[in-house]
Amino acid sequence: MADKKKDTATKKVSKKDATPKATLPPSGFKVAVREILRSKSALTALIIIILILLFTFGGSLFLNRAQITEMNIVDAYYGWGQGGHLLGTDDGGRDILKLLIMGGRNSIMIGISVTVITEIVGLVVGLVSGYYGGVVDVIIMRIVDFIQILPQMPIIIVLTTVIPNYNAVTLVFLIAMFGWTTTARYYRSFILSQRDRDYVLASKTSGSSNLQIMFREVLPNITSMIIIDVVLTIAGNIGIETSLSFLGYGLPTTTPSLGTLIGFADDPVNVINRPWLWLPATILLLVISLSINYVGRALQRAGDARQREN
């Protein structure tokens, strides 16, 4: 009898051990990391982005900014590897490699700075517009529509020529002045789908204020969308700054930029005979844009369960 009881107890224990334990779903960050690691292209792109950041931001720590823009006509138009200059020199004898490091850093910094401003403003406006809806939503969206139909590039070009003491900070605010509208529309669409969810109604019933519901309840539920938009917006803002600098209305001429380096390509002689002036900056910009795009696509899959790889 004792042996039978022991066998019965052993079976009960084994049944308990065999019962699967409940596990919590992975967090949004873990899902994003897993999706990037699964995709070879996204992982490669992420590594390239890290290397570019080390090249630009790390390399700039060892450079003297005053010497980078100092002109030396004697060394003008050195080619690849000539005169101790790995990537040659420009028309003022300035080292292209050093200009590339500082220019890449400046362009990326402006892209990140503009993104921070547009994301904060656009997120707050989108939250308010989508959460309250009704008349508030109509008024805000009509303001957004008006700003979006304005010709962005011509207005920025005009303002850069009339604003006194124009600098990089001014350029950041000029680009952000128009960029927040797209971000606001993007977040508004997600907030509209969240405002009538059960957790929002439950928070209202419990007496939570609208600000608490928006920033404590709704905002965490769109975190993955925020990460995706931030990554992709950085690439777009880098492109805007580069375009303006290429046209001569971006950063001041004394401040290196990818756009100013690519601007050497407006001369047919440079395009054919002096590719070292514009080609490195063009390749760097292309690699940055493509890498950010691949990482952004992986984050989109992480944010949408239907697109995730099995």
From TrEMBL:
Coiled-coil region(s): none
Protein's UniProt keywords contain Phosphoprotein: no
Main location (coarse class): membrane
Subcellular location: Cell membrane
TM helices/strands, residue ranges: 42-63, 108-131, 218-240, 276-296
Annotated region described as Disordered, given as residue ranges: 1-22
InterPro entries membership: BP-dependent_transpt_permease (IPR050366), MetI-like (IPR000515), MetI-like_sf (IPR035906)
Annotated membrane topology: Multi-pass membrane protein
Entry keywords, A to Z: Cell membrane, Membrane, Transmembrane, Transmembrane helix, Transport
Biased composition regions of type Basic and acidic residues, renumbered to the chain: 1-19
Domain ABC transmembrane type-1, residue spans: 104-296
Superkingdom field: Bacteria
One of the Pfam families matching this protein, by short name: BPD_transp_1
Keyword Membrane: yes
Recorded family membership: Belongs to the binding-protein-dependent transport system permease family.
Name of the featured protein: ABC transporter permease
Organism: Lactobacillus kitasatonis
Lineage per the UniProt record: Bacteria, Bacillati, Bacillota, Bacilli, Lactobacillales
